[in-house]
Design brief:
The complex is a heterodimer of chains A (about 110) and B (about 240).
Chain A (H helix, E strand, L loop, with lengths): L2 H27 L5 H8 L1 H15 L12 H16 L2 H18 L1
Chain B lengths: L1 H5 L5 H11 L1 H20 L4 H10 L3 H12 L4 H12 L2 H8 L8 H9 L3 H12 L5 H25 L14 H13 L3 H19 L5 H22 L1
Classes of the chains: A mainly alpha (about 110), B mainly alpha (about 240).
Chain lengths: ~110, ~240
């Protein structure tokens, strides 16, 4: 494809990526929201983290996969337990990567 | 007086280092995915420079990977841009959720911060801001570190794609999932938040299996946050 067209595509992508990120923060950060709106927004992080994480663990290929060969799902269990117990951010990441590497080495 | 004003505030460099350190799991996750993007971009007909520029100016991993897939099959530019918009629409929610914590930022500062807002940097900031860790230097250092890793991975993939083999044995592809698990654990300390997280997980998986595609994530978030907020409001009465 012509590089000029690719440059246009990159510019368009940059715009439609940046505007949804910037407009809400600009509009809302300068004013005080009503308590109900703030309460609703305070639930968004938990919702987004769970909504992004669940499909990648439960349905990595677009279908529910709860069998023994879904490594991500099983490794997530001890990782979540460690996360709840210790709140150790780096510990959870290290455990997850270590378990996955070990599983691939031995299975 | 001038000297004192010119020097960075106390804690500036420790905050920068702290931010870079907190972003390490993102770096581990972004390098291999960025690398894969760089390799695929070349195969789709992009030059290494174009691949690097896309990572600099777009900085949206899943959208970039989808874009090179569409490029490879000759999709129209408008289709690629529209798909990018839909994929990234969930950032509206992320941006809105962080807005209350950016009240004392200048407008150029907010604009800069938002340019580097991704799923992963959002996850970190949401947890930090909730714990009142709002240092601007640390916040921007997290963003800059993540973005640098993404650009570096993309450039390495575009230039060295043929030289490096499979990185799967290292378990790098679990780095981001593990980070999300750790941060999610920190978000679900109350029952209303637990209800939100369970609902979001259920809805998003259901919507994925039903074929909703990227609309599923934002729909799941809106429904789950409404449910969780309802539970919290109900408990308070």
């Amino acid at each position: 494809m012509e590089q000029k067209v690719i440059a246009l595509i990159i510019t368009g992508m940059a715009l439609v990526t940046y505007l949804p990120r910037m407009i809400p923060a600009m509009a809302l950060s300068s004013r005080r929201l009503n308590p109900l709106a703030e309460r609703w927004l305070s639930h968004v992080p938990a919702a987004i983290l769970a909504a992004l994480l669940a499909p990648s663990l439960l349905a990595p290929e677009g279908r529910i996969q709860a069998s023994a060969d879904n490594l991500f799902l099983w490794i997530a269990v001890p990782c979540f337990i460690l996360a709840i117990r210790t709140k150790s951010f780096f510990g959870v990441v290290a455990l997850g990567m270590g378990l996955l590497a070990a599983a691939r080495l031995f299975i | 007086m001038n000297d004192a004003r010119a020097l960075p505030a106390p804690g500036f460099w420790p905050d920068i280092l702290s931010g870079a350190r907190q972003a390490l799991p993102i770096v581990l996750g972004y390098l291999p995915v960025g690398f894969a993007f760089g390799v695929l971009a070349l195969k789709a007909g992009m030059t290494p420079l174009a691949a690097a520029l896309m990572s600099v100016f777009v900085f949206a991993g899943s959208a970039q990977l989808i874009a090179v897939g569409l490029l490879a099959v000759g999709a129209a530019p408008a289709t690629i841009v529209l798909t990018t918009f839909v994929v990234n629409l969930r950032h509206v929610l992320m941006s809105a959720a962080l807005a209350p914590h950016l009240r004392d930022w200048s407008r150029p500062g907010v604009a800069w911060f938002c340019a580097q807002l991704t799923d992963e940097t959002f996850a970190l900031h949401a947890s930090r801001f909730a714990r009142s860790q709002t240092s601007k230097a640390e916040t921007l250092a997290i963003n800059a570190t993540a973005h640098s890793a993404w650009i570096t991975g993309s450039i390495l993939g575009a230039f060295c794609g043929g030289l490096i083999g499979d990185v799967k044995p290292l378990g790098l592809d679990f780095a981001l999932s593990a980070m999300f698990l750790a941060l999610l654990a920190g978000q679900v300390g109350t029952r209303p938040r637990q209800a939100t997280a369970v609902a979001a997980a259920g809805f998003s998986t259901l919507f994925l299996c039903l074929g909703f595609g990227h609309w599923g994530v934002i729909a799941a978030c809106v429904l789950a946050a409404t449910l969780g907020c309802g539970v919290e409001t109900w408990n308070r009465k």
